[in-house]
Write a structure and sequence with these properties.
By secondary structure, the chain is of the alpha/beta class. 32% of the residues lie in helices and 32% in strands. It has helices spanning 10-21, 55-60, 71-77, 117-127, 142-145, 160-164, 184-189, 191-205, and strands spanning 2-7, 37-40, 45-50, 66-70, 82-86, 92-99, 110-114, 131-135, 151-156, 167-176, 178-182. The strands form 2 sheets. It has a 6-stranded mixed sheet with strand order 2-3-1-4-11-5. The longest helix is centred in the C-terminal third of the chain and has 15 residues, at 191-205. The protein starts with a strand and ends with a helix.
Length: 206
Amino acid sequence: MLNIALPKGRLGDQVYKLFSSIGYECAAIYQDNRKLVFENPDNQVRYLLVKPSDVAIYVEYGAADVGVVGKDILLESRPDVYELLDLNIGKCRLCVAAPDGYVEDRGRVLRVATKFAHVARDYYAGLGREIELIKLNGSIELAPILGLSDVIVDIVESGKTLVENHLHVEQEIVPISARFIVNRSSYLFKGDLIGAMQAKLTEAIS
């Protein structure tokens, strides 16, 4: 049986529909309850409902054999897992955003607010730009509005939240989408099951 770390929320719904469409359905997952573990022995799958940012942790440490996680989380947390497929769902962008009318002062340290500390440091290091990093966990858009930061590094989907807060995208750092990841040991010891799942996913998304 394969243990699948399934992210809760909208992405998880898309992921489950994809997995279900290729033969890994588990009807119990739609029951009105607070269970976090659902299994279907006939299809050899067990789904574990976890917070999206925790999927990679469950897979890295072997609590789950496989999982689906956003590329943004992989770039930031850098888990020791295999990234096998881009599932082409959950698409968005990781961007630098600034207030409307913002003009960067290259003569001073740039203040950057973000929850993606590693990504931001790497990006600006590549530009040779010195920054002061301000780590936040939510409402990132508020930081430049209140003068806490000059710019932000954050996920952008439609861009509506930026517009409503008089911000705009300055640069796109990297496109983001959901990735199929696998525990390294599971890939060795459950290779047949994982290989079959990977082949079906590849066919489905192509």
